[in-house]
């Protein structure tokens, strides 16, 4: 059929008769007018919330859009603005404000005088600085919506009693604000009892909470499993690293710890005794990924000077940057040896421990006629040269 013929067809003949009746037409027209009216009423109000956030307070488009889509747009801009102004006055950075609103948009609708300010005052009375309060609240803004009497005050009380100072409490809450949301009697106190029944002192429990606050929130079964693993590994509470060992073991889900031990055996060829010694001396080494293990091992073996036993002797070498520390230092030592400027390489531990400035003073500056300083510093953007210029 020709195009002009198709265009000329009366499309009304294809519609059911009842859709063309006056009553239906009037009903559909009223719906359209109603929808248009609603859109005209809603869009400016919604836009006014967006405008308040994005233009007046210079928050990101994504955050402003999210909050505007959640909050009621009618007649509350002044309330929202007062809450925002209070947070700014408290010292919240733009990033902290955006994080708070992204996690908890309804915080702007909270009662400033009756809900928000009393909770902030509790932190102030405990000795928190404005910066610490902003850091804690922006990390876990739901704090502003939980009971002051039943949750926040009891949690702050036991934390202050356990840790001893407001600075330590602030540090712990910046790491894990959920401690303010968890029932002390039902969840935290039983875990403290479990830890102490396994031989930990109150001071050791406090140190564990300070370093690994998440551990105290685990369910009892997980906590007991981690403590049993620690005991099987022969880690005594008399070791100053025992708390860190428990924290590292607990940080790995069920089965991950066993896979990590297997990686040390298969990739690095550690014996059981070497694994235990590493856990006793440097528990955080066990947080290194298997990929990092392989890469460090490869670059060490390529020197021809170090091997698996070198890593076992100084396992902390696994934690240093390959590109910023290991590679450039090995290249410098290789050049010095090839030109007969050193007879043997220092131990792996010694090479890794030296700060950039110290390494330069010992292995670069005495041989400036042989080694261009930029060989070590320039390409790798290390800090030694900059520090030298500042002094």
Automatic annotation (TrEMBL):
Q: Which GO terms describe its molecular function?
A: nucleic acid binding
Q: Which GO terms describe its biological process?
A: DNA-templated transcription termination
Q: InterPro entries annotated for this entry?
A: MTERF (IPR003690), MTERF_sf (IPR038538)
**Pfam families with a match to the protein in the record:** mTERF
Keywords of this entry: Transcription, Transcription regulation, Transcription termination, Transit peptide
Classify the source by domain of life.
Eukaryota
Q: Which Gene3D superfamilies match?
A: Transcription termination factor 3, mitochondrial
UniProt similarity note: Belongs to the mTERF family.
- Return the protein name: Mitochondrial transcription termination factor family protein
């Amino acid at each position: 059929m020709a195009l002009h013929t198709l265009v000329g067809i009366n499309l009304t003949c294809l519609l059911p008769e009842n859709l063309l009746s006056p009553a239906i037409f009037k009903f559909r027209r009223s719906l359209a007018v109603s929808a248009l009216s609603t859109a005209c009423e809603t869009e400016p109000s919604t836009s006014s919330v967006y405008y308040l956030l994005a233009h007046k307070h210079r928050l990101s488009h994504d955050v402003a859009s999210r909050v505007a889509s959640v909050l009621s747009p009618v007649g509350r801009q002044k309330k929202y603005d007062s809450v925002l102004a209070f947070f700014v006055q408290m010292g919240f950075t733009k990033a902290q404000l955006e994080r708070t609103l992204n996690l908890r948009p309804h915080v702007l609708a909270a009662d400033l005088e009756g809900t928000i300010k009393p909770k902030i005052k509790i932190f102030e009375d405990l000795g928190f600085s404005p910066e610490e309060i902003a850091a804690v609240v922006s990390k876990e803004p739901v704090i502003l919506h939980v009971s002051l009497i039943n949750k926040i005050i009891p949690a702050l009380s036991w934390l202050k009693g356990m840790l001893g100072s407001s600075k330590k409490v602030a540090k712990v809450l910046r790491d894990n604000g959920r401690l303010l949301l968890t029932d002390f009697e039902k969840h935290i106190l039983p875990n403290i009892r479990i830890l102490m029944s396994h031989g930990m002192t109150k001071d050791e429990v406090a140190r564990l909470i300070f370093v690994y606050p998440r551990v105290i929130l685990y369910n009892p079964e997980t906590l007991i499993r981690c403590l049993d693993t620690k005991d099987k590994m022969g880690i005594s509470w008399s070791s100053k690293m025992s708390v860190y060992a428990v924290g590292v073991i607990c940080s790995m889900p069920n089965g991950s710890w066993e896979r990590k031990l297997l990686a040390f055996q298969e990739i690095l060829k550690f014996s059981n005794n070497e694994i235990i010694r590493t856990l006793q001396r440097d528990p955080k080494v066990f947080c290194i990924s298997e990929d990092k293990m392989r890469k460090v091992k490869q670059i060490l073996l390529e020197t021809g000077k170090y091997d698996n036993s070198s890593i076992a002797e100084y396992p902390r070498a696994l934690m240093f940057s390959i590109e910023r520390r290991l590679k450039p230092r090995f290249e410098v030592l290789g050049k010095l040896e090839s030109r007969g400027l050193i007879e043997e390489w220092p131990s792996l531990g010694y090479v890794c421990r030296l700060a950039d400035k110290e390494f330069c003073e010992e292995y670069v500056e005495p041989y400036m006629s042989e080694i261009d300083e930029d060989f070590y510093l320039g390409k790798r953007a290390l800090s030694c040269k900059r520090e030298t210029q500042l002094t």
